Structures are given as structure tokens and as C-alpha cells.
Predict the structure of BAR domain-containing protein.
Amino acid sequence: MFNLKRLKQTVKEKTGTAMMTRYPAEVDQGITMTTEMLKGIKAIDMAIMAQWANYRLSSLTKLEKISNLCLKIAAKKNEKKVGKMCGVTANLCTAISKAERNCAKDIARDLSSGFSKRMISGELKAAVKLIDDLKKRRLDKDAANNEEGAPDAAEKDAAYESQLALVQAEFANLPAYQTRHAAAIKKFLTTRMAALAEIEKACNDAKPGLV
């Protein structure tokens, strides 16, 4: 809802013609941490999901199409070396695709649909709402105090202090959020390393049939 007093206060602050209440240093730090955490979680989630986007679709990936092509060649040339090599290549492509699809499924479940979704739409969304409300209460407070004889100055001061306390209580949870974020990233890395180990094994198993 549009608030003319807040707009006027904002303009006066930008032009240096009005008093502006400063948040406590730990609150400024908490606002920055919350903003950066939300931005970071969104960026990581988008990057990871884009990386494995093809493996989360029902249609065939390029690697799976290569596998099918190799299988056809292997069937036609099964008695020749090229046919046997194509069969090995097809099995390798299939193994790699399976590892990547499973990895994509696990990451989507644990990170995107799990941790990231809960944080973005849950805890951090609530924290951002508290911060936005604090900014409004701060503008209300300063607008009233900059207006000589404002009848609601004491009320606005109390509303600001009440909201400030809510924000400070929320910021006490930030270390726990960071710990959960680190655990989610660690789980992602563990999942990825397991998939890479599967791919490495498949490559090693295929080597004898490709020489």
C-alpha cells in the first residue's frame, strides 16, 4: 500500500534533509547476511539445475542417442572389430547416462526440491519479510520524529522497537541456517563424487574393449 509519509521521508533522507535512524551494527550485518544467503542459494540452485537439466527430462540426451546409434552399428557389424567397439561404446554411454540421471534425480530431491526450496520459500522468505517490515517501521518512526509535534511519534517509536526485536531474534538463527546450507552443499558434493566414481569405473571397464 502506498504511503506518502514514507515516500517523503525517503526523499528527504536521499537529499540529506532529514534524520535517519541507524540500525545496530549487528542488525546491519544480519540484513547483509540474509540477503547474500538468499542470493547465493538461488544462484547455486539455478546453476546446478541448469547443469543437469537434460538428465531430468524424459527425452534422450545426446549421449543416449549416441548409445542407440552405436547399438545399431554393433548389431550390423557384430562379427567385426568395429561392431564390438561400438557395443562397448554403447554400454559406456549408457552407464554414464545412468549415473548422470541418478545424480540429477538425487540432487533435485535433496537440494532443489529439498533444502533450497525450504529455505527460499520458508525461513529466508520469513526473514526478508521481517526485514522489509523493519524498514517500513524505521521510515514511520523517522517521519514522525522529523515532523514537529507529531501526535503518533511515541507509537511509531514503539512499533519500530518491537519490530527490531523480532528481527534480532530471527538473526539469532542465521548461524544454524549457515550450518544447514553447508551440510546441503556437502551432501551435493558427496552425491556428485559418487556419480563421478561410477563414471570412472565404467570408463576403466570399457578400456580393454576399445583397443
Notes: The first helix runs from residue 4 to 14. DSSP finds six helices and no strands in the chain.
